[in-house]
Amino acid sequence: MDMRKQNTKLDIDRIIFIGRTFDEYVDMFNLQIENLKNKKILDCPAGACSFAALGRNNAFEVQACDIAYTFETNDLYNKGKQDVEHAIEKMELSKSNYNWSYFKNTSDLKTHRLQALEDCTEDMKKHPNSYQSVSLPELPYEDNEFDILLSAHFLFMYSDRLDYNFHIQTIDEMIRVASEEIRIFPLINLEGKRYENLNDIIKYLNESGYITEEIKVNYEFQTNANTMLKIKI
């Protein structure tokens, strides 16, 4: 459901508004750009990612949704800049938890994160109807409305606060609105360990008639975060 007017108690300070670039999405989801032409794609949750913004340049039809879109774009942009600064400061203290082959250093990382934020918020101003405020596990879309759904850095990562039932409900809802496939990245928690209930989720999906595949991708920033789950519907 649309949370713009209904969720008046949501505090922007509780939202972390950081995103990845279009190129990161291509790598983390093992995307073939030529196969996405004229596809209808949902980025869920999208945060400050620039996939929707730059996807338009490649003839993709991309919608983005996130609980953060409750707030005004300018407020999100200012919050995003603060969040990037804070994230970089923390990362300087824990560089060993990351693989520095994709980004040269924290300065390079900061440049990419700020570029994603800039591209995202500029596109939000130009195409506000393409950015929908949502509160998972519910999605305000029609059945089979999208061909492909991409979901990065949400499911599995926060297993310390999102339980198994939430994961099942969210994936079921993602399946409802997608007609071809879903890709989820990464498959680890914040500690860099494989999500403890992933095998149970895969078993549930297979028994429900869906084909699943764990795919190693050409992207690893957080250590061990280099695989995605592909669900064929």
| Broad shape | globular
How many structural domains can be distinguished in the coordinates?
Answer: 1
- The radius of gyration computed from the alpha-carbon positions, rounded to a whole number of angstroms, is 17 Å
CATH superfamily: Vaccinia Virus protein VP39
How many strand segments?
7
What spatial order of strands do you see in the largest sheet? 3-2-1-4-5-7-6
Per DSSP, the total helix count is: 6
Strand residue content: 15-25%
GO molecular function, one term: methyltransferase activity
Keywords: Methyltransferase, Transferase
Protein name: SAM-dependent methyltransferase
What does this structure look like?
The structure is a single chain. This protein is α/β, with parallel strands linked by helices and 233 residues long. The chain has helices at residues 22-28, 51-55, 73-92, 106-126, 164-177, 198-207, and strands at 40-43, 61-66, 131-133, 146-152, 178-185, 211-216, 227-232. It has a single domain (12-232), classed as Rossmann fold (3-Layer(aba) Sandwich). It has six helices and seven strands. A seven-stranded mixed β-sheet has the order 3-2-1-4-5-7-6. Helix 2 (51-55) links the parallel strand 1 and strand 2. It is globular. The chain starts with 21 loop residues before the first helix and ends with a strand.
